Amino acid sequence: MLGLLTTPSGPRSVPLRTVADTTNTATVFYYTKTKNWPSTYLHYAPDGGSWTTVPGTLMEAACTDWVKKTVDLGSAAGLAATFNNGSGTWDNNGGANYALGTGTITVKDGVIAHSDPCADTGGGTGNQATVYYSTASTGWTTANIHYAPAGGSWTTVPGIGMEAACTGWWKRTLDIGTATSLKAAFNNGNGVWDNNNSADYTIPTGTTTVKDRVLTTGATDPCAAQEPDTEAPGAPGNVEAAATGTSIVVSWDAATDDTGVTKYQVTRTGGTSGTVVTDVSSTVYTDSGLAENTTYTYTVKAVDAAGNTSPASAAASATTGENAPAPDAGTPLGTDPRKDPIYFVLTARFYDGDSSNNRGGSQHVKSGNAANADPMFRGDFKGLVEKLDYIKALGFSAVWITPVVLNRSDYDYHGYHGYDFYKVDPRLTSAGASYQDLINAAHAKGMKIYQDVVYNHSSRWGAKGLFTPTVYGVRDSQWSWYYDEKNDGFEYDGLTVEPKSGKSYYNGDLWSTAEPTGNTCVNWGVPTGGKSAEGYTLYNCQWPSPTSGMFPKAYYHQCWIGNWEGEDSRSCWLHEDLADFNTESTPVQNYLIGAYDKYIDMGVDGFRVDTAVHIPRVTWNRRFLPAIHERVTQRFGTTAAQNFFVFGEVAAFVNDKWNRGSVNHSAQFYTWKERKEYSADDATAALEQYDYENGLGTGNQPTSTNAFLSGNSYHTPDHSRFSGMNIIDMRMHMNFGDAQNAYNNGKDSDDSVNDATYNVVYVDSHDYGPNKSSNRYSGGTDAWAENMSLMWTFRGIPTLYYGSEIEFQKGKQIDCGPTCPLAGTGRAYYGDHLAGSVTASDFGTVASASGEVATTLAQPLVRHLQRLNQIRRAVPALQMGQYSTDGITGQMAFKRRYTATGTDSFALVTVTGAATYTGIPNGTYTDAVTGDTKTVTGGTLSVSAPGQGNLRVYVLNGPGKIGGDGPYLK
């Protein structure tokens, strides 16, 4: 979904994908300026065919900064390709090779696009139009103009390549013959369009600029006042390389430049593959699949928008280790995420497939969990794999799991206290049931895995590989029970028992009997004058604190939060167990980007972003979201990147459309790109953005029609200003004490969300119930059925917290901390309800079930849920459609339509109450619930009240009744 713009209408709406043409050739253009190679070779293999002999075929000069080669592909529909200088220096797309199709293809600094960058459209005897197009706000790395002279024909999609004119501007002079104007649309060569909201641009002769949809005719040259940029960036500093197994993470400090760095070139030497050059946009690069026990050396160059390249950095080397046996990496399913309802599980509390990895932690006895034989780490990946068919039988095709990284705290089963972000927590894994095994098993069943990720904070013990404090103490006679005896040969992993202490939660590495070298914590080891609850002496630097100097400001913020809707909610700690990352710091950004690259490479289908509101939107938009998009594109291609689903927890626990009037702390705010340039320094930019946007206020925020029908018509959504992050619908969540309330509040916010059809909608979760209740929802079975009927038919992606299908733990406190038994909370172990066997024949359909799980599947809400999923899956309008309430009477009644990719699905929905629809298309409508058919001839259709929890879904030319009658849908 990242970065989608509106595709043009009419003759330009051809999907931009490479298909074989009648000659079945590929003309490949390669950008040479930033490589500065004396010669360029194309080494390729047609799909299903053999590779050319190294170094490949010599490419020929095409135009300034471009070379090209046309190759005959025979019957192949595309080719795999790499490029080299003929002397052992390669560009192989970071080891993934380039997957190219047929037709005209450009490869520029690692980005694949389409069009002829050397097409000569100017210099003729006819009228001319010089067009400048700005990509400063879209972030495109190339631009094409697709146009038609007045009275003439359109160019072939995607049009012709524009030339880089100056920073942020692209230019093309067009010969339009006798015409005095032209129609135009712009695109990035990979299906991302700007067609002026489907109106196209009308451009006269002369010089015209187009910036952020503002067209200026008779314009001055926007690059005329700028001297050509000939100054190269400075060389990147502090290049570091660290190996884990057969992967190496390379990181460096951002380079400086007078106009701004746009790319980095990472050059690798070593091994048997020669020299490899890879282009990246962030300041961290993960190099995977390397040879075992081999030393590799890396240098980095910075590249600016004009293509000026810095000198190479100092070299950094790392030696790989053994290649641990692991399942083959998965590939994300890559389909539209709106098709997939989500089931949310706390992995450690869902189903126990392997009791050998169960761990109780330091609070096992004190909490009461020991008495219940209920260790906090109980469920695992093996259990989840074994019960994927249960989730599929409910009808869910996506599973949101809690964070998988190695955690460290007194009570870390939930996953939000990350310690080693590069390591999967061993308490979740088993032989034959690794995280990779789970991803692959889910994909084999057509199910997605959404990984919960945390960018905002680490555990109280810091983050291994970035910074871990060793100033906790003092270990005197009173505290020896708490601070374990140091064992220099032991490394904490949460699972392995340290032999001296007998603990898996050993902490002997986290304190020092003497003041540590380089300690910054004030008054280390000096008694504070206070006493613990046990009456023990308390010492300075004994407990995590952001204000004592214990955590360096280069890695962590230095204050406690005071105002949850103030600027300090970005830059201060939420709790002593949540050490707040300085996310505006390059080393922290590198650490996190490198870590989450690992999980992208494993083939996860998306990220749920924890505590997203506590990181400035400008940092998301500058650093983390582009890094996600770039990595998915690099590994799996453009379509997979568009459908990699990122949805953020922007916690706003009020009923306001805008969270207490603070736009920076409102969920919808995070779905938008920035509207202006800020300081190059990320910390300064965060403050500038906070002041600027709050100063504009709630009335001057961007609006969108992406979720709404135009009358009865679906229109192509405009995602040109989409940030890349979707959101959990906090407003509906807060109001789900009553379905009608949730519906009204949701509608009220939709015009300020970039595209609310991607909102993740749930009633309750592992944190809160409606109205910020601390308890799991207890509104009753009828109310649950009504809520589900709304969620499964209204816009957004329906999501269910594990066990809600049987009202599991209803009314129970969701979380009471580490001092009470989990069995009495909303995070209780669910496995007892899943005992036995179950096989799903399809989504929402049980082939067989026995034991307790059969009883679970027979519950009334389960049957209701299964049928809702069957109906939603059969009606595309309910998955991806825009909606409208125009011309409709009824309390929870709406119409939805989806018209794209050869589909036209139109549905009329009413939940619980009666409804009348006027001004609708004439035709035959069939109710998916009852099979009732109504023929509309005068544009009006009326529906009687179906009753609480029930609904009607009249589909134009619909499939008929879907599924059988149940306790609510009948």
UniProtKB/TrEMBL annotation:
GO terms for biological process: polysaccharide catabolic process. Pfam families: Alpha-amylase, CBM_25, fn3. Residues 311-338 are annotated as: Disordered. GO terms for molecular function: hydrolase activity, acting on glycosyl bonds; metal ion binding; starch binding. Residues 311-326 have a biased composition (Low complexity). Its cofactor is Ca(2+). SMART domains: Aamy (SM00642), CBM_25 (SM01066), FN3 (SM00060). Residues 232-323 form the Fibronectin type-III domain. Keywords: Carbohydrate metabolism, Glycosidase, Hydrolase, Metal-binding, Polysaccharide degradation, Signal. PANTHER family: ALPHA-AMYLASE 1, ALPHA-AMYLASE FAMILY MEMBER. This is Alpha-amylase. It comes from Streptomyces phaeofaciens.
